[in-house]
Amino acid sequence: MKPSVILYKALPEDLQKRLEEHFTVTQVKNLSLETVAQHAEAFASAEGLLGSSEKVDVALLEKMPKLRATSTVSVGYDNFDVDALNARKILLMHTHMP
Fold it and tell me: For the residues of 1-69, what is the DSSP string, one character each?
């Protein structure tokens, strides 16, 4: 069984296909409370989180107990609660988009 990830930013088709070769991908438009509730099972089982321009905070992390890594498709990390990620030993990375 492939690890699961939440994708909250559209990727170019070729990159999306590469991601789907290695992961079960749940694509969402945003990380709003409503979206997380609608996809509660996917968020609860996701080991990865990939996207940009959305807040990743304690409230979201509490809904994602299996999360091991998150990556931003942008520069900077202002949208991430780094202390909360560190406390949970969750990796924070940057994904370069060509």
Answer: ---EEEE-S---HHHHHHHHHHSEEEE-S---HHHHHHTHHHHHH-SEEEESSS-B-HHHHHT-TT--E
For 20-43, the pLDDT digits (tens) are 999 999 999 999 999 999 999 999
Task: CATH number of the domain at 11, please.
Answer: 3.40.50.720
Other CB atoms within 10 A of residue 91 CB? 12
Residue ranges making up the domain that contains 65: 4-94
Q: Name residue 87's amino acid.
A: A
- Which helix H or strand E contains 44, and what residues bound it? helix 40-45
The model's pTM is 0.91
**Chain-wide mean pLDDT for the chain?**
94
